[in-house]
Every structure is written in C-alpha cells, then in structure tokens.
Give the backbone structure.
Amino acid sequence: MISKLIDAIVNKKAPVVAGLDPNLKFIPEHILKEAYGERGETLEGAADAILKFNKGIIDATCDLIPAVKPQIAMYEQFGIPGLMAYKDTVDYCHEKGLIVIADVKRGDIGSTSESYALAHLGKVKIGNSKVSPFDADFATVNPYLGTDGVKSFIDVCNENDRGIFVLVKTSNPSSGEFQDRMVYEGEGSEDTGELDKLEGAEETAQSPLFEVVAKKVREWGETSMDGTYSNVGAVVGATYPSQGEAARKLMPNTYILVPGYGAQGGKASDLKVFFNKDGLGAIVNSSRGIIAAYTKEPYSERFKPEDFAEASREAVKDMIKDINENAF
C-alpha cells in the first residue's frame, strides 16, 4: 500500500494530506441551516452537515492532494449518525481516487486488536461472505501495548495490502511528558527486573522513549516491506524538528506522517529533516489550515463562507508550494 501512496505523492508533486476533522463551528451557516432544515437539530442533522461540508472540500481539492486523513473522534461524537458520515466520507474519497488514512489511534491486544484492524483495514467474515466495514487504506496505531498490540494490524495489512502509521513522537505540547523521558533500553520484561541493579552504571544504555519506539517501528516495518519503504509508517510531529531528525535517522525505510504543520506552529523549513535524500519519506498533514481556511487570513479576506471549498483549494495550493519550495 505504501507504494500506492508514494506514486500518488509523486504524480501530484504534493507530499500533503488533508485532515478531514470537521467541527460544527467550522461549517458555514448555510450548510447547517440546510441540514437542520432537513433533519432537525439532531445527531442526524449534524452528521448530514458534516458530510455536505466534507464533500465540498473533497471535490475542490481531490485533483491536488494524494490523500486525506479523517479523524474518527470528530465523527464519533455524533454517535451512530456520525459514524455513518465517517463511512460515507471514506467511500466518497475513494470514489474521487484519494487514499484514506484513518486517524483512529487504536491499540489493544489479542482478539481486540485484531478486531480493530479488521474493522478499519480488513474484512470480517459474515457467513460465507467477507465484508470491509470501514475500508480505509491506512490507520494510525498506538504502540503503548507493545508488539502484542501492533502485530494484528501488520498481519491484516499484509493480508489486505494496507498500512499503518505508528505514533512515535506526537505534535502536542505535552507529548514530552512521556515520549522524551530517558528510559533503559531493555529487551523486554525479563531485562527490566535488572534495572535497579544497573542504575548508575556507566554501561547502562538510555534513550528517549520515542527513540525506543522508533527502533521498534523499524523492526516491525521489516515484516511488511513494499519496495524501498515499509507499510509500517510512523507519526512524528512537525513541531519537534530535532526529534524528527533523530527519528528519520533511526527509521530510514519508514514513511513518516507529519502532523503539526500550520495551525500547530510547524513551518515548512522545519520539515527538511523528515524527508530522505530521494525527496520521499514523509507526508505532511494540515487539518484546520485547510478545512477552515475560509475563516482565517488571508483567505477570509477573499472568500465568503459560501465559498469555503474554494478557500480550501487555495490553502492546499499554498501549502504544496510552501513545502516544495522550503522543505527540500
């Protein structure tokens, strides 16, 4: 699957993914009015507004971008109707030829992990039939439970030509509370019991936790290669370029999904360290900067709320230009 994403990035000259994270406050009044008029001020009305909003942005940008990243929580908050809008969004993106990265951040063990993987990336068996529930191309995965929580996803990816992006160093301000902590690099629980004995010993190897995770991602990735790069990718935030540089060196054959550009403060010049010398290796996400562009300068001066999709298109064009000129 990663080869398909790379082909789309190269063909469109756009290492960019649009985050479809709709919030009702981002949706123009004329869409809300129409949806509430048809479905009432209900969960169904909110879901209908979200889908109309998404379709407008998708129609306006699908020829420019290779992929989208819907954040499932923004849909789940509206219950079953919201999840239906999520599924309809995924299907509509596929109709438009876009690759879908499901931002679901799942992570568990055993049959639960397998069920998450099958729901978002695989097929479930119903009688004699096999059905794809959500049918995304990639999913984000939380690695905190270790290999037990990730292997099921990799197995499903290998069976269905899909991929994952594992959280390594996230873009949020408090990520360092855990991810930057220096930890002993043991090989598992049998080693950690010796930690107390080793504290203070010069030979004790310590690294930031995100680097330990990065090394594990590289190891997992070797079990799902698709050409030069692996179907097992990583999430590393644009807001931490020094950590991004370290992660890039530790994961040379790993594609990196880079959130944090734009609204969270990441700049195109910060992105150089995320890419490899081949000009590949990373895809940069922007959510609010694209879908809510019509509410922000300079687009708010040029576009009315009714023209929100055109504002999103201009924001995408500006983002692609910015990255291609300043991140390589």
Q: What stands out?
A: DSSP finds 14 helices and 14 strands in the chain. The radius of gyration is 20 Å. Residues 43-61 form the longest helix (19 residues).
